[in-house]
Amino acid sequence: MSIKMKLTAGLAVGLAIGVAYAAEPGSDMVSVKAMADALHMVMDSDRTVYTKTIVNRLVKQEKVIKASEHFEDDKALALPAQMFRFGAEMVAERASGNPEVNFSYSLQSLWPVNRQNAPKTDAEKAGLRFVADNVGKNYYTTETLGGQKYFTAIYPDIGVAPVCVACHNAHPDSPKKDFKLGDVMGGVVIRIPVGS
Amino acid sequence: MLWLIWLLVTIMLASWLGYAMLAERADRSVFMPGALSPGHHQLQPACASCHTDPLGGREVLQDACIKCHGDERRKPFDSHPKTKFQDPRNADRLDNIDALHCTTCHTEHQPGITAGNGLTQPRDLCFHCHRDVAEDRPSHAGMAFTSCASGGCHNFHDNRALYTKFLINHLDEPDLLDVPVVPAREFAGMLDQIIDYPLARYPQRPLGLEDADATFRVVLAHDSNPHEDWAATAHARSGVNCSACHRATAQDGSVVRWINLPDADVCGTCHGLEVERFGKGKHGMKQAAGLPPLQVSEARLPMQEDAAHERLTCNSCHAAHRYDVHYAASEACLRCHADEHTLAYKGSPHQLLWERELRGELPAGSGVSCATCHLPRVDMKASEWLTRITVDHNQGANLAPNSKMIRTTCLHCHGLAFSIDALADRSLVASNFTGRPSVHVRTMDLAAAEAERRATASGKDDDTSMFGF
User: Fold this and answer.
1) Are B294 and B287 spatial neighbours (Cβ–Cβ below 8 Å)?
2) Which of A3, A42, A54, B205 has a 20 to 30 A CA-CA distance from A149?
3) What is the domain partition of chain B in residue ranges?
């Protein structure tokens, strides 16, 4: 390849990059979908670490403490799902004072122990059904609630440990008693306000 | 001529109203749209306690509510915290009732529509969100929504005593437990963990009369032997010398002046949690708002006439130098309060137990003083990272409704079923629990039926919410 051709090719590549950059001025920004995916990755990892390193290790392996839904009264560890919800509560409190990073998330299920955590909006109903029926896939949509438009992402929530499955199958308020390890037991719903 | 008079009157009126609005110490009662509720009436001279910005709106009032009541308005203490309704998925619920603002249900200056606990919403407000409760809880079918809170069962905010598993766990308890005793306070044994405690200045070691660092002797009208009184207290036993309370020091530790009458700020140097909670109750809320301490005559409850001019400070109950906690727990209350419940205390079963404890016939914590129930020993957050069993000096924290008292007080000695019935029996409360409950609340019956349903469904006792070895 001659030096002229090399220069021409280099110029063309540079031009293409420049055009692409100019055509998408926000391309150095993370997309709302990527932000939701990243948030979910953190949430999921933290909860998995808590489940394995704290709850399962201390309850099932070292057998030094119990884990309980009523952990204060029972002087026990909070369940992983509760640890997740408390984080969501704290985020709700902190995000309300900082609209720049406003988002919310919750743990829901088509088979909730607490009916408050059943899907409520159309997007939640469709998304939870989708992630239950399409193993390994996420569900993304937009919805308008209370006059605000949201990007809503729903991720499958898998029963990763025997304690997850056993608790739900045995809980008197659980509408489903035949979960197996690895089943989709519900979904994590993340909402990020977009537009107006 | 007439217009001149009109102009002058207008200017005078505007000046007077402007002065009342803006001057720091002006009487602003002319702006009062209606009498304050029992919970806030003491703050009438301090409009700015809630109306922190004269031009502010609802959010200003919301901030004021949270400033005093915010600690309890979050999970797990509150089952309906603001964050629940901030969740976009609950946006439709806000169309029914604006649960983001305290003033939606607690509108002040509206005595004509204010019910107990400062509620200014219809009593059946639970209907808005829980109309289908019977689908989850068939036992609740047909129950009136006006009875959710009035039946001795549910509270909108603090609902913790009533979750099903808790009720089931406390089924079949006797009226009086085998070991009826309240927990001991935690303080002296954990001073090294309380970061704010000035342990470096006052190392924990017993002091005697010879160690007192106020070397001059004084004779006080009410307290003739301050040194001897001090030497017999927990202060002396814990290394807290005269100078700890009486000597004001600068940042560098040098003595600035001698304080004759130490105030709540001085007490708060070591007992910060107690002073903070005192300021949140009716005894200390005026002082905490920067007003003169509450005078007994200002109270809306019946009070002893000869105490009318007393003012409520730390020393009202904890007389200086002696700091007699036994006196503070009972006699101090009786000196001022004169309502039917208080007057019935002497001779009541609870008071007889208290007398026996004071005589040493029963173990510590077996007697029931006024404070046992109204200033209970609660495992409270001393900081973000530490709890200690403390006397909760907010005497109203477990009242309104009185079922809040079940967890903090009654269950130390009584079964849950007995406690629920006793607190729902107004005549029994008035007689200071002399007798047995004549009222029966169905809460525990429903819990028993639910326990049976669960056992039948699973074929075993219900303990599935707890996982362990």
Assistant:
1) yes
2) A42
3) 1-31, 32-158, 188-413
